[in-house]
Design goal:
The chain is of the alpha+beta class. Helix content is about 50%, strand content about 10%. The protein binds 2'-deoxycytidine-5'-triphosphate (DCP), magnesium ion and manganese (II) ion (MN).
Amino acid sequence: PRATHGSEQGNPNARTIQILEGLCKYYDQMQDTWRTLAYRRVIGVLRKQTVKISTREQAEALPFIGSRLAEKIEEIVITDRLRRLDNTRTDPMDKILRLFLGIYGVGLSQANKWIQAGHRTLDDLLRNAKLSHNQKTGIDHYDDFAARIPRAEVEAHGSYVRKALYKLDPSFEVMVMGSYRRGAKDSGDIDLIITKPRATLAAMRAVVFDELVTSLFNEGFLKTSLATSHRHDSTGTKWHGASCLPSSTTWRRLDLLLVPEEEMGAALIYFTGNDIFNRSMRLLASKKGMRLNQKGLYKDVVRGKGREKLNEGTLVEGRSEKKIFEILGVPWRPPTERIC
Ligand code: DCP
Ligand code: MG
Ligand code: MN
């Protein structure tokens, strides 16, 4: 969920945008990626308009707005609300679905299974459902994980990890990524890149995942690790879990990513995001016959009929964020402008 910017004052479509944002947020909670994306685009288009868009014809003339969305916009303008949103707000089953989807790591299929099994509240789940460690943690700390983390606290978690790692080996570096690097005033979680110049991944892994994580658990800073089951991280570069500052009782979601220096540029792009920006960069690479992932930019990627890739391609650039932009022909965008 993205924060609204309050920049709508004076925009002739402010009310329409406000209602569409409600719908966008709803689809985001429902984990409906495509609708969320479509609505974000429409909101972006409407923000740029200098006249009020009132009819479906006007709306359809704008980019990214098809006939169904155009109808919705007309309905919003005429009725000052959207039926779809009213229906979902009052449907109790819908509310429960959104409650369950708010549990860390829970997707639509799990949430629906619980509803089918008759569960209606978080207490219900705790008492009567068979829960994984992640799910139990997600419920026990539902409010913690739903709360935004102020920028200063994100920074404090980063510093805490940096200081602890410095004691083990002063040549390590810790960088705060994600929405923090994009300049957000608050974040959903804390994303850290950890690296050491000239070190191999295996050497870094031994210090970070064995020594550092163990000592941070002993100090009480780390609270639990959260399994990353569906993620295909065969190389073991990620750690997901929760941390808590000594001065606080609120658990925060913490993600660590180990990066060797030769992959730093690609990792910076990936872990800075946002997700939509990454998607557009990857699409662009693919259109140019290349492939961009969190390790590097590759060329000579052979793709089959369904655009599935048949080989890995050859590495073009991994080290430098700026060079990856250059090779893709994208003008440099500072992290604070990577919001789509
Ligand atoms: N990322 C991505 N695609 C995903 C998930 C993540 O490209 N499906 C990348 C882009 C994100 C970055 O990883 O910016 C960090 O992921 P987060 O989920 O932590 O998202 P943000 O840090 O951007 O936002 P938030 O403040 O909600 O944590
Ligand atoms: Mg984040
Ligand atoms: Mn994260």
